[in-house]
């Protein structure tokens, strides 16, 4: 099995404000591990750096500093084509992530062939049908011949999940996988991800702004605010006893006005007043400093 160790990752983007070129720190000294059979939820509002972390893990972006170390159980590093096979992503938008000109079969057969999972056309076809059945798309032979526009959003997302698993994924990065789906079918897709995770002992990073599903579908929650981790711990602890003002805000409960140096209930409405220089770690029961010498944005 494969595990990922993210250590002290920073991502800066060069941006232009007016005539000035400046730097925007999207991810600020973030560390966490993804291990087989466990789901970590990365929670935060828009702009907190969640997608940037997903892009770094799937090598669409390079970190400005820090390391992403991917290793097999025996300690050997996972690189190159093995990395591309084993670390897969499910995107937010099932309408944009599938090619409208290709059949469902093509979408799943392609990674099977490219990554050498099947040898003959017959074997590929059989595997495609098996994958469709695994994601509860039936009848598989009919669905295989369909094009994306003939499917509902939920069905498309199931195809995207089958496509991600086809190369032999061991690590799944699910970036807001249900936020664009009808509320009524979200649970079904999340339950499917949960079942596949258990069956294949996948290491899953579940990116969401929804604390309720984060609690239900993950073992650990990491709360991200302005690129920094401000709270982390077992899912129940983070949700039931949130300690950081930002987590409390997300959870809809008032911050603790008694805590020195923290914002008051009134001020918390002003997001900018929230301090992200400390992180509450439920695993150690301690407050830790966040960020490095580079400062935050
Ligand atoms: N290519 C880029 N160039 C410049 N800035 C970027 C780039 N990509 C992201 N950012 C900025 O980095 C910050 C973090 O963005 P990111 O997309 O990672 O946040 P997010 O938490 O995933 O938000 P969302 O839920 O809206 O996707 C934002 O301020 C964003 O504007």
From TrEMBL:
Domain of life, source organism: Bacteria
UniProt name for this protein: Dipeptide/oligopeptide/nickel ABC transporter ATP-binding protein
Domain ABC transporter: from-to ranges: 4-251
Record has Hydrolase as a keyword: no
GO BP annotation list: transmembrane transport
GO MF term list: ATP binding; ATP hydrolysis activity
UniProt keyword annotations, A-Z: ATP-binding, Nucleotide-binding, Transport
């Amino acid at each position: 099995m494969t595990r990922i160790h993210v250590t002290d990752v920073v991502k800066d983007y060069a941006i232009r404000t007016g005539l000035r070129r400046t730097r925007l720190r999207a991810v600020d000294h973030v560390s966490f591990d993804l291990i087989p059979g466990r789901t970590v939820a990365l929670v935060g509002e828009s702009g907190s750096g969640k997608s940037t972390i997903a892009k770094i893990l799937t090598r669409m972006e390079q970190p400005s500093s820090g390391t992403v170390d991917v290793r097999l159980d025996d300690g050997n590093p996972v690189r190159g084509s093995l990395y591309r096979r084993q670390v897969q992503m499910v995107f937010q938008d099932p309408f944009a992530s599938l090619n409208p000109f290709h059949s469902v079969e093509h979408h799943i057969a392609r990674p099977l062939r490219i990554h050498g999972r099947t040898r003959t056309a017959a074997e590929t076809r059989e595997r495609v049908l098996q994958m469709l059945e695994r994601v509860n798309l039936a009848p598989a032979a009919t669905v295989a011949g369909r094009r994306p526009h003939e499917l509902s959003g939920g069905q498309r997302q199931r195809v995207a999940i089958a496509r991600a698993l086809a190369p032999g994924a061991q690590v799944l990065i699910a970036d807001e996988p249900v936020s664009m789906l009808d509320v009524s079918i979200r649970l079904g897709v999340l339950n499917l991800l949960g079942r596949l995770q258990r069956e294949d002992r996948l290491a899953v990073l579940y990116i969401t702004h929804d604390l309720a599903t984060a609690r239900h579908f993950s073992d650990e929650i990491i709360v991200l605010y302005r690129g920094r981790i401000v709270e982390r711990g077992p899912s129940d602890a983070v949700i039931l006893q949130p300690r950081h003002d930002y987590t409390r805000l997300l959870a809809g409960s008032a911050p603790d006005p008694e805590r020195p140096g923290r914002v008051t209930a009134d001020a918390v409405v002003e997001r900018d007043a929230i301090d992200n220089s400390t992180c509450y770690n439920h695993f150690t029961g301690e407050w830790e400093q966040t960020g490095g010498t580079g400062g935050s944005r």
